[in-house]
Amino acid sequence: MMLIPTHHFRDIERKPEYLQPEKCVPPPHPGPVGTMWFIRDGCGIACAIVTWFLVLYAEFVVLFVMLIPSRDYVYSVINGIVFNLLAFLALASHCRAMLTDPGAVPKGNATKEFIESLQLKPGQVVYKCPKCCSIKPDRAHHCSVCKRCIRKMDHHCPWVNNCVGENNQKYFVLFTMYIALISLHALIMVGFHFLHCFEEDWTRCSSFSPPTTVVLLILLCFEGLLFLIFTSVMFGTQVHSICTDETGIEQLKKEERRWAKKTKWMNMKAVFGHPFSLGWASPFATPDQGKADPYQYVV
Fold first, then answer.
1. Which residues lie below 8 Å from residue 146, measured CB to CB, with a gap of 6+?
2. Using alpha carbons only, how large is the chain's radius of gyration in Å?
3. Catalytic residues
4. pLDDT at 22 > cutoff 80
5. What global pTM score does this model have?
């Protein structure tokens, strides 16, 4: 049995007849500048609401159960400022991760005119996504929830109701980091509060009744411990993915590496921006992604 070389298939794949551009309608006109990206997925919206509810619940318990009733003014002020700052940054990072275009490929761009504009040479390959009728750039994958091909897609996260991709990975990493920090901070404060209440009269530890106080603190403990473990693992896997310049999907599929290998520091700067600054920790600082390379569609 004669085996056909792989490059023969590649030559076929680059032909317009194989890509069937006539079946693709021209891409829609881009929306007005500043149009908000939002995925209308019921499960994702519910998860995002739950995320905000849990953060606000932690905020309520920390403020009204532990800090405001405390007679140590300095302790309450310092911990209140730190916790509220971390919670604000966590929710801001969540909003940026949820409302930022993760790197969606223009829908319906697999037209004959666009393919001809790439000026393909013999041996070069382009791949068409049959689901969104787009020419897929290298390292792009289709998301069935977003219904778009996403550049450097790592995974779809229902907690932020969005894909984690090229343009919003920084915000997702910051979200997991700040959630882990406020979870750890809340657990430490709960521990100190329990010790203080055991030594003092429980009626003076909170403005709520002792049974209510205990239930609220135990629920906060479970929430803090659960999210500390979950977000710490997610933060670690994301940082590892950035340093190795290999997305979660690429690791799962064990895809062949076709892109240039860079240092870990260069990979970090590609996600968080150039150069290193306090902006790396800010969800309000948008990293410079550079201009799109027209040859990213060919391999």
1. 39, 102, 104, 156, 162, 163
2. 24
3. 157
4. no
5. 0.84
